[in-house]
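Incident review: delayed structure delivery

Summary: a single-chain prediction request sat in the queue longer than the usual turnaround. Root cause was a stuck worker, restarted by the on-call engineer. No data loss occurred. The affected request and its eventual output are reproduced below so the record is complete for anyone auditing the incident later.

Affected input:
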Amino acid sequence: MAKVVAIVGSYRRGGITDQAVDAVLDGARENGARTEKIYLIEQHIEFCKNCRMCTQVKGPERGKCVHQDDLEFVLQEVEDATAVVLGSPVNYYNVTAVFRRFMERLLGYTYWPWGKNLGPVMRKKVRAKKAVLVASAAVPGPLIPLTTGAPRALRVAAKMVGAKPVGKLWIGLVGAEPEETLRPRVHAKAVRLGRKLA
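Output delivered after worker restart:
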């Protein structure tokens, strides 16, 4: 049975990004998948120290971080999944700080020993998981990839966890009201994308 894990980089529950992620998960469940949603804001995830200890041991397995926090739990859930949903609102032209903190801690998926100036090399070349990427912003949806770094950040995070995007949802023109509801057309698209993950 397919298992879909969503990683949400929003600072609050019930916002547009959260609603969109829920709709994607609804679509996955319609096709028989088990789903789980993890709010990064509710996890204790330290800042990366740039010590690169997680990149020193060669091999296909993710390098272990020196921090003892909730990242291990989050990544174990992702590794046990067949697909992921990565979602973040756009804040200051990119993903939120809490999503960025999570993303920077994904370095253990690479091998980058000291004395080698080649830069980090992915430990596993095959991206076996599927991913749906979700971002919301005040600008029109088609401008999100053109005016913000959020889509690239979400793609990088997907690559690091071994997932290949099969769909993206750039939700624009949000933030005009304190409490907004996902537009029906966007909701329907999110559900369709979720079905691809199961």
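Verification: The chain has six helices and seven strands.
Action items: add queue-age alerting; document worker restart procedure.
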